[in-house]
Amino acid sequence: MPTIAPAAPPSRLSRGVGWLMGSLVAMAVLCALLAWRAHATVTHLQRSEHIGRTLPQLHRVMEDLLNAETGLRGYLLTQKGSALQPYREAMDGLEQRLDDLVRLSPDPMQGPRLARIRELALIKLRELDQLVRLHDSGQHDEALERVMGNPAQMDELRDLLGELRADLAAEQARINARLQQDANQGEWLLLGGLGTLTLFTAIAVTQVITRTRTAERSQQRLRDIADHVPALIGHFDRQGRLLFANAEAGRVFGFEPEAAVGRPIADLHTPQGAAAMQPQVDRVLAGATVEFDARVQVDGQWRHFHQCLVPDRLPGATRGFYAVSMDITDRRRDELRVAQSEKRLKAVTDNLPIALGYIDAEQRLQYANETVRTLLNVPLEGAIGRTLESLLGPEQYAQRRVHLALGLQGERVEFDTSGVHLGRKRHFRSVYVPDIAEGGAVVGLFLLSIDITPMKQAEAQLAQWASSDALTGLPNRRELDQALEQALLRQRRLAREGRALAVLFLDVDHFKTVNDSYGHAVGDEVLKAFAQCLRHTVRASDVVARLAGDEFVAVLEGLNSPDEAAGVAAKIIEAVAHQPLAGLSVTTSIGVATVEEPEMPARDLMALADRALYQAKRSGRNGFAVLHGPGLDSRR
């Protein structure tokens, strides 16, 4: 069984999926906003927490400095060691707490004031320590005077600590207010985002449901279409398992399409068919589109299918292939009949005595039969595609140039040509028939050429027989009349040059006696010998003809004077008298008629020569008489 192609392609992204994607994008934007809000809240909380840690430390530093100063004053005033205990407790670790306060506060705005507080506190600590050492050294009054005076540094320290604590407390209040505002806005933002997400999701679900139903209806329509096309359609996965087959495939191969789903190609083919199919499957799974013809046995009969395999692609991979199979059995049968018919037609055309060919609009040979190959003496495979001019040569092509142009303009042309082919002169009758397309344009010419050389030869022979004497081969009376008319026409020009024209009328003396004594066969031989003698005696340009019996005529053109004809007549008489004709000695009598002005008609000129002949005979034969037209002068 041939491969079957797919039902319907995968559905495209529906509008519902687009809405769903939109809801996801909205949720992503919402999450980004909430994350930004959360980050800002965390930052504020961290700042508030830092302020919360810094304020107690500032308060304790202030208390420690006041306790140290108060304890030192009590000690100096009372001179009691117990009064120094608050001083010692306040001084214990105060410097470390000051360092931690400065180090743990990254706020650049508070940094300078903290550094100044530390600087003043350390100065105060060193001062208190000096006062204790001064008292212990016996300078009690000086120590007491100094501790009770000079409160400027302590005042500055108190002012800085007070300002810093006030600023931090105000900042913490602002942060708390901002956190409360952000909390309210975040709540509304979250509620709005959730509402929007719910709306988008509802629209998306609605669209997906609608599009799913539409896709199902569309898929059903595609299935209906696939089931009613005159082709076998199917879809296969990479393992060659059938995923879909249309009704036509089931009808041709006798299975239910739904029941065949999942079956491999090997189950759908004969072993030989599956083996022949595998290379094509490998090619389509490699990503190539494949077209081929296959011969498959169906229900015991061989059928032909044209198949097209198209890969089912995923990004970077091929997950299967589609296939469409057309039953071309009838077409192949018709092609076979056409091929057989063309073979028979070629056998006929190749054996016709007609050269058949076809040229395109550029005069390139596209078809030729065997007769053309014989005439051109070139292999047909070497002639196809070449121009007619290159095949015929310049001379032969020139004879056909105009006719080719007329044919390619849409006219049917018939004409005769001649030329030398294979060392022999031949004549051809050609017919050019234009090949006209539907739009009226001439796309080529059909060429037919017949070798009419035998016909031309026959025509020439017939013409010769019609214009010449069968016995002697000389022109006959009909040809003589035409030649004399043409000679008189030329004499009009020659007369102006002082030239003359002469007609000699001759016969064989006593020819009847020759026939009676020796028979007609000998008489015929005498006539043929007389004709040869006459032909050899006059000029090659002179016309010599036989009228009938033993009567002959010679037409002499371009004579320098009328008297020149008499010399020719005397030469003929001498030649005949001194040359045995067919073994017999014979003589001839000649009547000469001359003319200078070509006004005398041909029949009158012939009559004048005839009268001159009778004069020659009455004078005793074996001589000539001359008459000058239009006079009657004669001489021997």
Structural commentary:
- By secondary structure, the protein is α+β, with helices and mostly antiparallel strands.
- It has 4 domains: 15-197, Four Helix Bundle (Hemerythrin (Met), subunit A), CATH 1.20.120; 229-327, 2-Layer Sandwich (Beta-Lactamase), CATH 3.30.450.20; 357-457, Beta-Lactamase (2-Layer Sandwich); 468-628, 2-Layer Sandwich (Alpha-Beta Plaits).
- The protein contains 21 helices and 15 strands.
- It has helices at residues 15-78, 85-91, 94-103, 111-136, 140-148, 152-228, 247-253, 257-260, 265-268, 271-285, 329-350, 370-376, 380-383, 388-392, 394-408, 453-467, 477-495, 511-518, 520-537, 564-577, 602-618; strands at residues 232-237, 242-245, 290-298, 301-314, 317-327, 354-360, 365-368, 413-421, 424-436, 442-451, 500-508, 543-548, 551-559, 588-595, 624-628.
- The chain has a 5-stranded antiparallel β-sheet with strand order 2-1-5-4-3, sandwiched between helices.
- Strand 6 (354-360) and strand 7 form a beta hairpin.
- Helix 1 (15-78) packs antiparallel against helix 2, helix 1 (15-78) packs antiparallel against helix 5 and helix 4 (111-136) runs antiparallel to helix 5 (140-148).
- The two termini are 113 Å apart.
